[in-house]
Amino acid sequence: MEPRIQYAQTADGVSIAFWTLGEGMPLVHMPFVFTHIQLEWQMPEMRRWYERLAQRRKLVRYDSAGIGLSDRNVADMSFDARALDVEAVADRLGLERFALFGPLHSGPLAIAYAARRPERVSHLILWGAYARASEWSASPRVQAIRALVDMDWETYTETAAHALLGWSEGEPARRFAALIRESVTPERLRAAVARLREVDVTALLPQVKAPTLVLARRQLGFELDVARGLAARIPDARLALLEGTSGAPYLGDTEAVLAAIDEFLGEGEEAAAAAEAPAPGAFRTILFTDVEGSTALTQRLGDAKARELLRAHERIVREALKAHGGSEVKTMGDGFMASFSSATRALECAIAMQRAFAGHNETAEEPIRVRIGLNAGEPIAEEKDLFGTAVILSARIAAKAEGGEIVASDVVRQLVAGKGFLFADRGDVALRGFEDPVRLYDVRWQEGG
Fold first, then answer.
1. Which of 173, 237, 337, 361 has a CA-to-CA distance to 34 between 20 and 30 Å?
2. Is 91 exposed, middle or buried (0-12, 13-18, 19+ CB in 10 A)?
3. How far apart are CA 161 and CA 47, in angstroms?
4. CA separation (Å) from 33 to 147, 222, 429?
5. Residue 439, H or E segment
């Protein structure tokens, strides 16, 4: 069902169109380059993006003043005046604190708002953003495309759409070009570009107090350097470098973008909340343990001594799960299946387990060598158990580990980018039951390793 469009009034009397979707922690999604909140919903790729973002939270999406369904007759389009758009929508919905998503040209405004209103912004997410407009405008490609505005409006919109979404995008780019023509006039765009050249929030970067996630795609050239600069200048900001060639987060490997956002926004939860049974369709990190050679151990030691060894394994695993907010899904005799709402906590738990087993083995007559595998996704939850591709893949990954190893999927590696974990690339590995090879990584857990 299409979200109901509502209106908020800014302090300077401008009507701002917005809609909301979902329930829970509020995430205010600022506009992309060009916006029209009704037409966006009719574009399948954007609708899926919004629906997925709203699965775990209350998503708020609005059109800027002068664009889309918001008031077009706006005299003051200055940077400071448009900060009122965010304020008006948040006040209209009674949001005291909210996460703020600033894509592309909304990035500088998001940075400024977070720096000036730290009491309202709980988290800041930046996509393809910059602090200084000259960082964007200096690109010869951007200058060439902007020159088309004065030559041919339709050619400009088609070219700008392909440049933003990716030159290989056909129908999505055509739909976005049509959206540009509906959302803004050439005159309004020229005025906006002129004001944009003056934008520079570099001095505000050190003042951002909210936890910040800077997202960028590796293959986008200059945007990657700008993203690194942002992450370096915002205190304790996290940089997540993803794969892809589209400047739109809702195209390409969208799941990796959404997973990084889910991971980032989910870290504010208490560990106790993480141990609760996952909601159906919730994004989880799945961990499997497996005692190497358990059958041979039983044959060699006998049932009683082998069971004593497995009890030590169970104690170490359960202590680590409790300490790191993991939820024990089930035990399978010589192994465990557990889930986490945070990939960071899952990896920290896996490392704690291996270090505990290493400590046990230093003094034990019989060592315990345990394989650990991790994957992340949206498992199916039924009767306190988890099923589905994400679970099966995690089990297959654990089977590829040797005793004393932690092996993780590329999804997990991307989720914890910038957290200080060390990985060694195993390359693409064929896994039973999966048609395509899967990229796997060893997790280095030894002290100094």
1. 237
2. middle
3. 17
4. 17, 18, 40
5. strand 438-444
The C-alpha atoms of residue 17 and residue 6 are separated, in whole angstroms, by: 6
**H or E stretch at 177:** helix 171-183
User: CB–CB of 380/280 below 8 Å?
Assistant: yes
What pLDDT, on a 0 to 100 scale, did the predictor assign at position 210?
Answer: 92
Instruction: For residue 381, name the pLDDT band (cuts at 50, 70, 90).
Output: confident
What are the sequence ranges of the domains in the chain? 6-266, 271-444
According to CATH, the superfamily of the domain at 271-444 is Nucleotide cyclase, GGDEF domain (3.30.70.1230)
**Residues ≥6 apart with Cβ < 8 Å to 110:** 30, 100, 101, 102, 124, 126, 129
How far apart are the C-alpha atoms of 257 and 294, rounded to whole Å?
39
Cβ–Cβ < 8 Å for 337, 397:
no
Average pLDDT value for residue range 105-133: 91
Nearest to residue 307, comparing CAs of 333, 338, 329, 330? 333
The whole-number pLDDT of residue 394 equals: 94
SS3 244: coil
Instruction: Return phi, psi of residue 279, to 5°.
Output: -70, 155
H-helix or E-strand spanning residue 392: helix 389-400
Nearest to 444 by CA among 426, 430, 427, 423: 423
**Token representation of residue 264:** 């980032």
**Separation CA 78–CA 72 (nearest Å):** 14
Looking at residues 388-395, what average pLDDT do you find?
92
Longest dimension (CA), the chain: 84
Rounded-to-integer distance, Cα 139 and Cα 360, Å: 58
| H or E stretch covering 98 | strand 98-103
Name the residue among 108, 344, 127 with its Cα closest to residue 239. 127
Angle at 199 between CA 20 and CA 79, to 5 degrees: 45
pLDDT of residue 143: 63
In angstroms, the CA 79 to CA 82 distance is 5
**Rounded CA gap, 210 and 114, in Å?**
7
129: number of Cβ within 10 Å = 28
Q: Helices (H), strands (E): how many in the chain?
A: 17, 17
**pTM beyond cutoff 0.70:** no
CA distances from residue 220 to 134, 171, 258 in whole angstroms, order as listed = 17, 21, 19
Query: CB–CB of 312/288 below 8 Å?
Result: no
Where is 423: in which H helix or E strand?
strand 422-429
Residue 127 tokens, joined: 């996509």
CATH of domain 6-266: 3.40.50.1820
Buried-state track 198-217, b at ≥16 Cβ within 10 A, e below 16: ebebeebbeebebbbbbbbb
97-115 pLDDT per residue, tens = 999 999 988 899 999 999 9
